[in-house]
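Colleagues,

For the teaching module next term, I've prepared a clean inverse folding example: a structure given as tokens, and then the sequence designed for it. I'd like students to try predicting residues themselves before seeing the answer, so please don't circulate the second half yet.
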């Protein structure tokens, strides 16, 4: 008995050390940390345990570990998921005047790093895009995917000339229009990268079935964007006031993690200024990266009559992080709407991925459909032709501050391997609704 009473007492387990920043991080970030440490636990349970431990991530994690050890037969889920928005982990918004409640940290892109966005509200706030997850009924999405995977077997890479080198796109693509007449017009009248397309296809049954659904969703998102994001709740200058009606679609196929497309803006030649594009992603999830393009020259004066977005561009110029990359994660069956400010002021790309999670239907392939509204007023019969005799390409000044946002027509025949272009250049003029105004007078012979 004496030996028992005099036996040294066993030391108590040390209290868990608090995680750095435990007291400073908002609740949603703490929950995200807990979720990464304990992926098999649902968010409601994580929130309850976090609140029970006064917001301490370390103490909540320790409690969860004890619970997991108490259930040795339990197994973690083997299902591969994708990261959701941090907003789902957040507490309800605090009542006004409650300064002690945690608030969501403002997201911001940084030069030299990539800001990853998953939540539709974050995408709409920080980029010129909106995204809709689970866009189509699952069976419709899979039917469309299967149909286009079959079509993609005969897709080809696009070959063009870049800086005197002949290059080909790092993915394959196909072009679809609504009717046989449209197919013939495309082959006879339209030019892409200085040459005519030879592979123009009739829209497939599933593409036709999905088109009105895309059209309705895009028009709804455009009106919401105008109402909530644009100055005065009005459309941008040069943006068409008419409903967006898709009548063509480029379909791209990316096979494997390394097939990609570099930084670019989509051509406006047949879409007109301030174009809207609806992009459906199917199959493997990939990152869609965007970044602002700001003038780089030292001239501090800007042409106030240019097509740029004025004060927002000036504010971005003063921010050293304004051109930081933003990554929008595009899961299977999502619709991304690229709004009217996208092509003029931003560039986008699909970057090579370190690895990908195979899709049960597509395997390692991603199918991307970009629905477009080809406007009749931008038919090649109406637009300027260069001295090479082909319709000009429509571009916008993105790098020189003096003419930032101004549009121009120029020759693009030199994009074709083995061909030389001419020096044709002409400033483009539009009315407020983006309709072209032609006076037949060519401007300077050198691009801006």
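(Answer key — instructors only)
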């Amino acid at each position: 008995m004496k030996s028992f009473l005099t036996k040294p007492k066993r030391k108590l387990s040390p209290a868990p050390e608090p995680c750095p920043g435990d007291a400073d991080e908002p609740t949603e970030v703490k929950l995200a940390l807990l979720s990464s440490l304990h992926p098999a636990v649902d968010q409601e349970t994580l929130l309850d345990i976090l609140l029970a431990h006064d917001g301490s991530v370390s103490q909540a994690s320790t409690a969860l570990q004890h619970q997991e050890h108490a259930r040795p037969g339990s197994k973690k889920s083997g299902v591969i998921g994708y990261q959701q928005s941090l907003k789902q982990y957040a507490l309800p918004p605090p009542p006004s005047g409650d300064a002690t409640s945690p608030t969501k940290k403002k997201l911001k892109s940084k030069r030299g790093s990539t800001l990853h966005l998953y939540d539709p509200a974050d995408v709409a706030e920080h980029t010129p895009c909106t995204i809709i997850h689970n866009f189509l009924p699952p069976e419709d999405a899979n039917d469309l995917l299967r149909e286009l995977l079959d079509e993609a077997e005969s897709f080809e890479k696009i070959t063009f000339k870049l800086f005197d080198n002949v290059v080909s796109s790092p993915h394959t693509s196909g072009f679809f229009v609504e009717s046989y007449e449209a197919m013939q017009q495309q082959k006879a009248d339209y030019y892409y990268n200085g040459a005519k397309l030879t592979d123009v296809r009739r829209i497939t049954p599933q593409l036709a079935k999905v088109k009105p659904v895309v059209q309705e969703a895009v028009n709804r998102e455009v009106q919401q964007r105008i109402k909530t994001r644009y100055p005065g709740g009005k459309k941008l200058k040069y943006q068409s006031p008419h409903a967006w009606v898709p009548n063509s679609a480029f379909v791209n196929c990316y096979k494997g993690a390394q097939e990609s497309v570099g930084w670019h803006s989509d051509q406006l030649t047949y879409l007109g200024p301030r174009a809207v594009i609806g992009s459906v992603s199917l199959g493997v999830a990939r990152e869609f990266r965007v970044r602002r393009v700001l003038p780089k020259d030292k001239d501090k004066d800007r042409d106030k009559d240019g097509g740029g977005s004025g004060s927002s561009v000036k504010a971005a110029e003063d921010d050293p992080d304004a051109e930081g990359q933003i990554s929008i994660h595009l899961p299977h069956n999502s619709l991304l709407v690229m709004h009217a400010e996208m092509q003029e002021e931003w560039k986008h790309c699909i970057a090579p991925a370190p690895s990908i999670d195979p899709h049960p239907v597509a395997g390692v392939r991603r199918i991307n459909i970009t629905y477009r509204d080809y406007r009749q007023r931008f038919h090649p019969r109406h637009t300027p032709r260069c001295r090479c005799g082909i319709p000009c390409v429509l571009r916008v000044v993105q790098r020189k501050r003096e003419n930032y946002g101004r549009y121009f027509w120029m020759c693009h025949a030199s994009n074709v391997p083995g061909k030389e272009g001419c020096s044709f250049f002409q400033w483009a003029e539009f009315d407020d609704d983006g309709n072209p105004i032609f006076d037949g007078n060519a401007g300077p012979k050198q691009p801006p």
